[in-house]
Known about the structure:
Elements: H1 3-15, H2 19-22, H3 28-36, H4 50-63, H5 77-87, H6 91-112, H7 121-134, H8 156-169, H9 172-178, H10 202-206
Amino acid sequence: MNRRELLQCAALLVSGATASKLGFALTDEQLVYLATAPDYARAKSDFFSHQQRKIIAAMAEATIPATDTPGAIEAGVPHFIELMVADWLNDQERALFSAGLADMETRIPQDHGKSFDLLEAQQQLVILETMEAAAADSPWYSQGNIRRPFISDAPFICMVKELTIWGFFTSEVGASQVLRTNMMPMRFDGNLPLAPDESAWAPYMFIS
Length: 208
């Protein structure tokens, strides 16, 4: 099983979603792995400190805020991120993530007088956009860079965004309340136009 396939399994285990709902095309090896894995959807983790959890929750919610649809917190994304970092990232990725999170704990209060999670939403957005601008040279931002393995040396902000988006759209909330899953059977149209008020099809986003 390659790393992309392993992380697909991780997303399914952590989110508790089903492969059929998300449109994942799983290999036989993945099916065996998932069939023999323990129940992981409600697993607890003490990898982050209490303060780190608040920062990650605020970063995730700033990335996918609650509007007329649920946001990242309601979808359980902060917990998803903690489990992924603790148990599924490799040592290099985990070290980069931990260093970035530690920097958020110390630098943001020094610069703004408050922890990131206590700042106004607009202040949080400015900080995240500044972090993105500083990371703009990363291959993570390469045009069309959507079907590739998790980039192990991606900057912290990129890792948080990727895990947030991944966790949200593989959650029950994201897949059923934001994306559309009732597509017509036995039909695929890669050029199907969407109206401005239409959300994407879940299987279109997650076909492997």
